[in-house]
Write a structure and sequence with these properties.
13 helices, 0% strand, mainly alpha
């Protein structure tokens, strides 16, 4: 087997692993949403990274775990009639969630060290991969930091911690996908002109607007603001509901922590995402960008339209589990699509008008 063939085989191994990690992260985020919507996330009140892989194996062990849960505000204020059998149901969901997260961590860390040790990933190019590994560990810590906020006084996790946990997952997903794209496609060196292009600026703007919308989705989840209104487009019989900025004295606090205000912003800001995507498509067509870019933008616009429809349905039907999870999964697809669009635009050749040479500027002899 030639050296080139071995290199291509190794490269394909890294690419396959990266895309598998991308899918794994997305599944973890959606499953995390499932755990939250079934109110299972606070069922395990301790974080034991090593011993936590072993569930209760005897009736006495189950009684001990249940006794710990009975000391939490969620049990005392919401689930005070829960039986041991019912507790086991939510325990297993959270246990599986944590077990999958541990498996994901090993699935990431072990190949990273293998690829570096074997020289498949050169040490000088290993920084992004090491950051991916560290981010997985940090995500585990952030998961517990989020859960711990719901074990004291309030039977719900802090919405800021939940959103930060979500955004960290998106950072991890974005970095992994970006590396997968770099290993999959071989493009020339990026120039300064490409960074300054109208398409790239619009692509980044779309990405930022989308992140804001997803962050407000995190606020919605943490504050359970989806239950504030079950009508659309009106809220409380009005397009702009009464008391939009009166929950807290501070306007900023209302924008970030008032369930009514957060719900209002999240439901209408989705149209800003769609509008920016349409503008990006217009720029791509006007600048004669490659067909792959316009197609990717059309896919984003279709996904954004579906996402808005799902959001409206979630409100109308009172946040049903299947619709809510589909809504969350579509947000991840939008995030992935936005990064792919940016990557494509960033590697789109930019035509630069060069000044005429001195010879060309001279008048032609009669």
């Amino acid at each position: 087997m030639s050296e080139q063939t071995v290199s291509e085989k190794n490269n394909k191994a890294v690419i396959t692993w990266l895309y598998m990690v991308v899918v794994l992260i997305m599944l973890l985020v959606v499953f995390g949403g499932f755990v939250r919507l079934t109110r299972s996330g606070l069922s395990i009140v301790e974080w034991n990274p090593i011993t936590g892989v072993i569930p209760p194996l005897s009736e006495e062990a189950w009684q001990t775990e249940f006794a710990k849960y009975q000391q939490t505000p969620e049990f005392q204020k919401i689930n005070y009639t829960m039986t041991l059998f019912e507790y086991k149901e939510i325990f297993w969901l959270e246990f599986i969630h944590r077990l999958i997260a541990r498996f994901a961590g090993l699935f990431v860390v072990i190949p990273i060290f293998y690829f570096i040790f074997k020289g498949i990933i050169p040490w000088r190019k290993s920084a992004p991969f090491l950051i991916i590994g560290l981010l997985f560990g940090f995500q585990g810590f952030m998961g517990w930091y989020m859960v711990s906020s719901g074990l004291v006084d309030n039977p719900a996790v802090d919405h800021f911690r939940l959103t930060f946990h979500l955004l960290t997952a998106l950072l991890l997903l974005g970095l992994t996908l970006w590396m997968a794209l770099r290993y999959t496609y071989h493009f020339p060196k990026i120039t300064r002109a490409q960074f300054k292009s109208a398409g790239f600026i619009m692509g980044v703007f779309l990405f930022v607007v989308l992140i804001i919308q997803i962050a407000y989705g995190g606020f919605m989840a943490g504050l359970k603001a989806g239950h504030v209104s079950n009508t659309w487009p009106l809220m409380g019989g009005r397009l702009i509901p009464v008391g939009l900025l009166s929950t807290f004295e501070s306007a900023l606090e209302n924008f970030l922590s008032a369930p009514l205000t957060v719900h209002f912003i999240h439901r209408w800001f989705s149209f800003a995402v769609l509008l920016v995507a349409i503008l990006l498509y217009y720029v791509a067509k006007r600048k004669n960008y490659a067909e792959t870019i316009t197609k990717s933008t059309i896919i984003f616009i279709v996904l954004a339209t579906i996402q808005i429809s799902l959001g409206i349905s979630v409100v109308w039907f009172g946040v049903p589990l299947v619709l809510a999870l589909t809504h969350q999964a579509t947000a991840l697809l939008l995030y992935v699509a936005s990064l792919i669009i940016i990557y494509q635009i960033l590697h789109e050749p930019v035509t630069v008008s060069l000044p005429q040479t001195e010879k060309e500027l001279k008048p032609t002899a009669a």
